Automatic annotation (TrEMBL):
The gene is LOC107469732. Pfam families: p450. It is found in: Membrane. It is an enzyme of class 1 (oxidoreductase). Signal peptide: none annotated. This is (+)-abscisic acid 8'-hydroxylase. Its cofactor is heme. Pathway: Plant hormone degradation; abscisic acid degradation. It is a single-pass membrane protein. It comes from Arachis duranensis (Wild peanut). It comes from the Eukaryota. Heme binds at C429. The chain crosses the membrane at residues 6-27. Belongs to the cytochrome P450 family.
Amino acid sequence: MEISASISTLLLLLSWMCFLLLFLFLFSNLLTKKRDKVENVASKPKLPPGSMGWPYVGETLQLYSQDPNIFFASKQKRYGEIFKTHILGCPCVMLASPEGARFVLVTHAHLFKPTYPKSKEKLIGPSALFFHQGHYHTLIRKLVQNSLSPDTIRRLIPDIETEVVSSLESWVSAGHVVNAFQEMKKFSFNVGILSVFGNLEGNYRDQLKENYSIVEKGYNSFPTMIRGTSYSKALLARKRIREIISEIISKRKEQRLMEKDLLGHMLNYRDEKGKTLTDEQIADNVIGVLFAAQDTTASVLTWILKYLHDDQKLLEAIKAEQMAVYEATEQGKMPLTWGQTRNMPFTHRVILESLRMASIISFTFREAVVDVEYKGYLIPKGWKVMPLFRNIHHNPEFHPAPHNFDPSRFEMAPKPNTFMPFGNGVHSCPGNELAKLNMLILIHHLVTKFRWEVVENQNGVQYSPFPVPLHGLPTRFWRND
Ligand code: HEM
Ligand SMILES: *[C@@H]1O[C@H](CO)[C@@H](O)[C@H](O)[C@H]1NC(C)=O
């Protein structure tokens, strides 16, 4: 009795919702038609072409029910290099051309501000540099850039090598299949810690790692303060990370250490009036950099493992280059030098081609701070804009036969703004040199001393949230001897 009553209430509710949606749909169509007319009369710039889908829900469902790359590519085919859509509750203009990306990120960057959901901002920390523009952003960015400059990271080579070798040894001694992506994440986290804190005491490192993995689980879960949910646990873990960082900071202050790592750069900063950064600003940026460094680097490394595994000729070619370096280090008895890492041209091209093929950052988001006109189209104030890196990287006009893995295409520099794996302009990736250095060092040890077999080599992709091979690429490793 009770069940059927509640079912019929549910049905009634559902039919009302359908009716409401239909009503909204028709009504909003009328509204947009009317507005289009008004714009035509005044001959103001018009909105870009494209469909906005259902109101509120917009095209979010399409985006999530199919491969996002197919979603963007089919839009581009239909509407061209600029089109509008509606995702996650926001009206938005997508730009799939090099000029469009440059307009938003470089030449007119001041008309667009970074934009992230508030819930994510709270998890990373509102003072982290990616959420800011203007003076504060420039200030923090300088500190981050200095701590990741070639002069600083070249000193990290021996420590990175130690991390690489101990990771590879641990995968072999596991004696079974490992989830390559998860393992690459551990490696990338450790190198992130190195660049932020230098050689950090082991128990701080473990505490940060445990608590950070809780933060991470909350990042892609539904944001609610209800106790026991992933999101609220993540906020608590974040608080503990802040406490750990404060403890590390006060220890350093006691010992008056002047380190060259990011923490050192931030602790030494004084403005014109001698004011320092607050612990909160420092902690938010430390967490921000660890966040920016980990999954990105790990995703690309996992793709490289797959690309090399799937193409034995490619593997042989990269091995030939790396064996020569291996001999020069007296079979690994000497650490790699900075000069040697700068002189691995083929390996470097393989890395660039992997970055292009995988395009793990498929697009980015900004928000128009005023009405902006681009190529005769209006981008209204408050709308999101999305430069679509992946579409540009996979456009045959700029990268012929885009679906072939072909490192030789990088023997010539790509045309301006057609290759942006690290973004462009004031918010472009300050960690790009460190990311490439990690990859060079890992590839060096991997191909000279180890072999590996991908166990479940399907061609699927999972979004976590960056694209990675399905199931994190289950792989088994052996030492060559
Ligand atoms: C292969 C690895 C990586 C890729 C593909 C990558 C890609 C990117 C991209 C595309 C952006 C710009 C986002 C935008 O404009 O909205 C960015 C920003 C950033 N990346 Fe990376 N990144 C990688 C590794 C790293 C590493 C290792 C670090 C630090 C150790 C790092 C730190 C940052 C920071 C701090 C920002 C924000 C810069 C700002 O807002 O001014 N990234 N990254
Ligand atoms: C998180 O950090 C705290 C210190 O603030 C530490 O006691 C704890 O063991 C860490 N790990 C977890 C899972 O809470």
